[in-house]
Amino acid sequence: MKNIELKQPSSCCAAPAIEQDIMKQQPNNNFKNKPVVIIGAGPIGLAAAANLAERGEDFILLESGTHVGHNISDWGHVRLFSPWQYNIDKAAARLLSKHGWVAPSPDALPTGQELLEKYLLPLSELPEIKSKLILNTKCSSDQPKRHRQNEIRASRKQSFCDLY
Ligand SMILES: Cc1cc2nc3c(=O)[nH]c(=O)nc-3n(C[C@H](O)[C@H](O)[C@H](O)COP(=O)(O)OP(=O)(O)OC[C@H]3O[C@@H](n4cnc5c(N)ncnc54)[C@H](O)[C@@H]3O)c2cc1C
């Protein structure tokens, strides 16, 4: 089993407040030229990736499953309660459209499987994202997380992503 060691992550896409705390603790701001690490390629991780790709920011996208949207496969047969127009990130739509993607009807309600097949999987296949996506990679902290401050310390010290 291989480990990817993430030291001093350059950004935290899920929690801007934590990111600010981390940046404050780094007076020389030596994160600047490091890639953003996005953990989890669900709808939110992929939207983060699309937004970074659009801005020309360097990133890697780590997913524990065998494909993006792995959790959604568990309930692929279920129809969503929100129509397509609320399920598609705007930067992702712009990126997909550049490659000839045709957006689904905005008012239709997709199933989980359709969300995967018509949006998340095509998005993950775009060259801007595919080259940054690493599947079968689970990220975990090496320290128990008791509260937020510990969480920051844990991620500042080191985190591991297991390739299995
Ligand atoms: C039955 C059902 C119906 C729903 N219907 C709707 C709806 O109609 N409208 C709506 O807005 N929302 C709906 N939701 C909620 C919606 O699915 C979630 O809000 C959405 O999937 C969250 O996206 P996410 O990317 O944050 O998380 P997830 O979809 O959970 O994706 C997280 C990803 O990260 C990966 N991952 C997890 N841990 C790690 C790790 N340690 N290292 C690496 N990778 C990791 C997982 O494999 C997964 O691919 C529904 C949910 C369910 C269960």
Automatic annotation (TrEMBL):
Gene3D superfamilies: FAD/NAD(P)-binding domain (3.50.50.60). SUPFAM superfamilies: FAD/NAD(P)-binding domain. It holds the Pfam family NAD_binding_8. This is Uncharacterized protein. It comes from Cohnella abietis. The lineage of its organism: Bacteria, Bacillati, Bacillota, Bacilli, Bacillales.
